[in-house]
């Protein structure tokens, strides 16, 4: 299912805003953020094999959108996939309690602080459109660490094809755009600039009915 033509320009505007496209840097730990997208685990394994970090933490329990696909929990399934891709078992830890991005960061921070890595260099691996929100959350909730973001290098069209549900992808983009502002207001994340064209695209997509992932007041 492709992105509807009448919404394509606005969807691309949001996609380009959230996909930070940062160049990789060597880090102490790669943190794969749990979600419905197994591509996060694939990308984490690729970056490990390329030598960008020597160890991995997969973090995530379940959300309503993932429990059927990953019944044993997101982090557990991500770990199993990374092992299938040749990552050594000793290089992977799992954090299995987090149910949202804030908890992903906080619980991983606590896990690594116990190992003397509170001030670590961390590469956050997520879905392409989750990068901006993940970084804003991490800088608020783990200020001691240095962060870099990474995701599968793919176009909007490739991502929609990999997920198989354009409406779901659009709703997630709209929801993440709302959260950039809303979560900063609530103190969950650092503030991020939202260009006028991004805000306008977001409002048009809300008006078009892509509201399934909005935070309700």
CATH architecture of the largest domain: 3-Layer(aba) Sandwich
CATH superfamily placement of the largest domain: HUPs
Helical content band: 40-55%
Based on helices, strands and strand pairing, what is the structural class? alpha/beta
Strand content: 5-15%
**How are the strands of the largest sheet arranged?**
3-2-1-4-5
List the helices and strands and how they pair.
Layout: H1 8-18, E1 29-33, H2 39-49, E2 56-59, H3 74-84, E3 92-95, H4 101-113, E4 121-125, H5 131-141, E5 146-150, H6 156-163, H7 166-185, H8 196-207
Parallel strand pairs: 1-2, 1-4, 2-3, 4-5
Describe the structure concisely.
This protein is an alpha/beta fold. Helices cover 45% and strands 11% of the residues. It has a five-stranded parallel sheet with strand order 3-2-1-4-5, sandwiched between helices.
Structure description:
It is a single chain. A five-stranded parallel β-sheet has the order 3-2-1-4-5, with helices on both faces. The chain is globular. Strand 4, helix 5 (131-141) and strand 5 form a beta-alpha-beta unit. With 217 residues, the protein is of the alpha/beta class. 45% of the residues lie in helices and 11% in strands.
Describe the structure using short key phrases.
45% helix, 2 domains, Cell_Envelope_Assoc, Rossmann fold, 5 strands, 8 helices, alpha/beta, Rossmann-like_a/b/a_fold, globular
